[in-house]
Amino acid sequence: MDLKELEHLAELSKLKFSEDELKEFEKDFTSLVELADVVKNANVTGERKLNIIDMAELREDEVKESTPVDVLLQNSPIVKKDSIVVPRIME
Question: According to a count of CB atoms within 10 Å of the terminal CB, is the N or C end of the chain lower?
């Protein structure tokens, strides 16, 4: 995927990136597309066993500080009372 396509995707997503960020993202996005191709072409025919993790091996939940609301909302085109406003699609 080239920079022009990434700029178009960013515009559609209403995200703003600097030229340097787009160049860096180009590498990451190319890797993701390549990984998606590997998954898409994986042979998944036949019977497979499900690997179930022993519940005792899971880590404990940890309470961590989350991202500040203003940072989360900075790319949203319309914000009202610390919420993202989206068009109604159902009556």
Answer: C
d(CA 13, CA 30): 18
The answer to whether the predicted template modeling score (pTM) of the entire model surpasses 0.90 is no
11-32 residue pLDDT tens: 888 888 888 888 888 888 888 8
Amino acid letter at 10?
A: A
What does the DSSP assignment read for 4-66?
A: HHHHHHHHHTT----HHHHHHHHHHHHHHHHHHHHHHT----S-----PPPGGGSPPP---PP
Using the CB atoms, write b or e for 20-41: b if 16+ within 10 Å: eebeebeeeeeeeeeeeeeeee
> Which single residue is written with the structure tokens 């500040």?
68
